[in-house]
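Input record (one chain):
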Amino acid sequence: MDQLLSGRKVGIIGVSEGLGYALAYFLLKDGAKVLINARNKEKLDKIKTILLKYGTVESLDASMENLENVDKLFNLAKEKLGGLDDLVVAIGGYVEDDISDPKGLDAMIDSQVKLQLRVISKSIKYLHSGSTIVMISSMRGIDKGLPNQLSYGIAKAAIAKAVQILASSLLERGIRVIGVAPSVIDGKFEPERDWRKLRKLGDWKAPPEDFASVISILLSDRMEWINGVVVPVDGGAFSK
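The corresponding structure, as predicted from the sequence alone:
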């Protein structure tokens, strides 16, 4: 029986030791080839060394703030993997602030919205019919917000709207755009651990595996009718 993502080639931009690392792991386990990106070479090399046990992994340590590095990413993917089918934009950042001092507004809008949209804009020419783009929103961006997450919540809400608009824009090109809205991603990823023992259904936070596994499934052909929406991934925490 074929693996869920057998033959697919996926790029992850903005790999962390949490969600991005876990996602690369699940993609490999599901049969994909993966290209991971982050600015920190030491961190990236460490992650890549471990992931090579599970499949084909390439890496590019470069900041996407220089948009020329998007070209480098796709050129490397073409050279080493034969191209990319899918792109997960996981560029992050987190700031707490409130209306009395919205100190994080520029930083959150710049990293979570402007940079991500510019990266995706430059990536479009490399993708093809059947490709999928995944963006990371947050439950705080689509559901109940917190007073101390003003700038963060606004940025994540903007990502949710961007998913809808981009999906509509790319329909004729056959490219899907999906958002995922995690609750709270708890801690760093560790391969092969029993992460289900670390939380129970309805917890407000969960290990990165719970969110990464959903993204991997959403990239499969079986999910191709999901498009232009942000999928809540919270274990039922926000239904309380």
